[in-house]
Amino acid sequence: MSQSDTPVPIAVVMISLNEAHNMEDVLANIAGFAQEIFLIDSYSTDATIDIALKHGVKVVQRKFRGFGDQWNFAATALPITAPWTMKLDPDERLTDALKQAIRSAIANATADGYIVRRRLWFMGKSLPVRQDLLRIWRSGACRFSDVLVNEHPIVAGRIERLDGTLEHHDSPNLDHWFAKQNSYSTAEALIARRGARLSTEPKLFGNALQRRTWLKARLLYFPLTPAAVFLYYIIVSGVWRAGRVGIIWALLRRDVHRMIIYKRREMDLLGHDYPPARPQPGPPDPRVPQYE
Question: Which of 52, 82, 101, 148 is 20 to 30 A (C-alpha) from 276?
Fold first, then answer.
């Protein structure tokens, strides 16, 4: 057996709630790649757990209280034995180039964490929208910002960037995308209304994440921000190069920002928060361990 055929000493960790539409593809994508695969499920009512167990995934269930809380549990409480851990979302796929880059990086181990470049796919088309995300770290050496949404891993030590691409296939169709963005915009509006913690300290002259957080904290809720968001994606990100799909995506991102502004305003007028927007969880699955 060649080195490329042996599993990488890494634990791939995912969280889920009704992700059956993604599970077959994501597990086929990482089959034979990782030493172990964990799934923290928040009481799915579809076939998510059935598919995961069929593929030998180590599944546990735990109540969802927020993305930061769930990922901090993943980083500290799972019985991970691999020396490295990778955060993966069910709608993401590793390219062969990225798999090889991860294998080489872990074999050399010159850093404590690794950043990967993620590229967005929308309506079945690749868009020129990329993010550099910290996704790999030495097991036990990571904690997450404890926020409702847009959680951020925090790893001390040397951080390096890997070659290759992580593909983000954002929703199987627009019906699913709208439902997901409804939940996301509600969470963002709640964060603004409550003055809750952001994913990192806002700094105009900090790193890329800190700059985005600084802009978000000051500009996201202005009435003209949605139009600025549309122009940013069209001109700066260049999504016009993806044709009509790119323009549709930029228009929809503009509309999501409007949803956040309007939801926050409505909650202020009503004098109370919205109830949780996530789907109602099902009963515990007796086949898998349960955690508080």
Answer: 52
**pLDDT reported for residue 276:** 65
Q: How confident is the model at residue 44 (pLDDT cuts 50, 70, 90)?
A: very high
> Distance between CA 124 and CA 120 in Å, rounded?
10
Tokens representing residue 85 in the block = 């851990």
Q: Which two tokens stand for residue 246?
A: 């790119």
E-strand ranges in the chain read: 8-16, 34-41, 58-62, 84-87, 92-94, 113-122, 125-138, 142-144, 153-155, 159-169, 290-291
For 247-267, the pLDDT digits (tens) are: 999 999 999 999 999 999 999
Q: How do the domains of the chain map onto residue ranges?
A: 3-170, 174-270
CATH of the domain spanning 3-170 = 3.90.550.10
pTM reported for the whole predicted model: 0.87
Instruction: Among 76-80, 129-133, 184-188, 219-223, name the one with the lowest average pLDDT.
Output: 219-223
124 and 45 Cβ atoms separated by less than 8 Å: no
The set of long-range contacts for 189-192, using a CB threshold of 8 Å and a minimum separation of 24, is 189/259, 189/260, 189/261, 189/263, 189/264, 189/267, 189/274, 190/148, 190/267, 190/273, 190/274, 191/147, 191/148, 191/149, 192/220, 192/221, 192/260, 192/264
Range of weakest confidence among 5-19, 51-65, 83-97, 276-290: 276-290
Look up residue 122 and give its two tokens: 């929308």
